[in-house]
Automatic annotation (TrEMBL):
GO terms for biological process: tRNA N1-guanine methylation. PANTHER family: TRNA (GUANINE-N(1)-)-METHYLTRANSFERASE. Gene3D superfamilies: 3.40.1280.10, tRNA(m1g37)methyltransferase, domain 2. HAMAP family: TrmD. This is tRNA (guanine-N(1)-)-methyltransferase.
C-alpha cells in the first residue's frame, strides 16, 4: 500500500513512523509512506507562505487551496477516491474504517493546520474526511499518524502473528481479554489460576468470557447484533 501525507510539519512524522511496527513495515516494503511539505508548493518563493487571513474576518489563518492542489498534482499515481482530509468534522475513525481502508492501494492524507483549509479544497478535491474523535487538536499530523498506524498493523505480513491483530479490541465486536505475564505472584497479587492450568480449552473459554464480560460492562455499544 502507498500512503502520501501532505503537511506543513514533516518533521513531526520522524519517530512515530520510523520505529517499531511501522518502521519495520516500511523497511520490509509492506507500506510505502511519503511525506510532502506543503511549503514546497507555495507560489511565494521568498517566504514560502501557504496561509492567509479568512475572508469575512475572524481569528486565525486558513491554508490556501493552491499548495494543496499543486502538491496533489505532483503525486504521480492517483487512484480513484483516495484523497482524505483529516478533519474534526469528518467521519469518526474506528477499527472497521481501518479495515475498509486497507483494501485501497493508495491513500493521500491532507493535514490541516491553523483554522483549517480553504473550503473549496474540501468541496472539489477531497474524496472523504476522517476525524479521530470529537475533540480538536492543533493539526492533522497526529490524527494522520493514528490512521496510518491503525491501517499499517492490519496489512499482511506486518504484525508477526496475525492472530494477535485478529483478537485485538474491536476486531470482532469485542474488547480484548485481560493479559498477565511473569511473575505469577507480584506483591501478593496472583494471576487467575486457570492460566496456569495448561488446559487450553479452559483457558480459551475463560478468555472468551472475560472479553465478553468487560465488553458488556464497558462498551455494550460495540457488541455485534448478529453475534451468536
Ligand atoms: N476550525 C476547525 C479546526 C481546525 S484544527 C474546526 O473547528 O473544524 C486544525 C486542523 O487540525 C484541522 O484542519 C484538521 O486537519 C486537524 N484536526 C483537528 N482536530 C482533528 C480531529 N479530531 N480529527 C482529525 N483532524 C483534526
Amino acid at each position: 500500500m502507498r500512503i502520501d501525507i501532505l503537511t506543513l510539519f514533516p518533521e513531526m512524522f520522524a519517530g512515530p513512523l520510523d520505529c517499531s511496527i511501522i518502521g519495520k513495515a516500511r523497511e520490509k516494503g509492506c507500506v510505502n509512506i511519503n511525506i510532502h511539505n506543503l511549503r514546497d508548493f507555495s507560489s511565494d518563493e521568498r517566504h514560502r507562505k501557504v496561509d492567509d487571513r479568512p475572508y469575512g474576518g475572524g481569528p486565525g489563518m486558513v491554508i490556501k487551496p493552491e499548495p494543496i492542489y499543486k502538491a496533489i498534482a505532483s503525486i504521480d499515481s492517483h487512484s480513484e477516491g483516495c484523497i482524505i482530509l483529516m478533519s474534526p468534522q469528518g467521519e469518526r475513525f474506528n477499527q472497521e474504517k481501518a479495515r475498509k481502508l486497507i483494501k485501497r492501494k493508495h491513500l493521500i492524507l491532507i493535514c490541516g493546520r491553523y483554522e483549517g483549509i480553504d473550503e473549496r479544497v474540501r468541496e472539489n478535491l477531497v474524496d472523504e474526511e476522517i476525524s479521530v474523535g470529537d475533540y480538536v487538536v492543533s493539526g492533522g499530523e497526529l490524527p494522520a499518524m493514528i490512521v496510518v498506524d491503525a491501517i499499517t498493523r492490519l496489512l499482511p505480513g506486518v504484525v508477526g502473528r496475525e492472530e494477535s491483530v485478529k483478537k485485538d479490541s474491536f476486531s470482532e465486536g469485542m474488547l480484548d481479554y485481560p493479559t498477565y505475564t511473569r511473575p505469577a505472584i507480584y506483591r501478593g497479587m496472583e494471576i487467575p489460576s486457570v492460566l496456569l492450568s495448561g488446559n487450553h480449552l479452559r483457558i480459551e473459554k475463560w478468555r472468551r468470557e472475560e472479553a465478553l464480560r468487560r465488553t458488556i460492562l464497558r462498551r455494550p455499544d460495540i457488541i455485534k447484533k448478529d453475534r451468536k
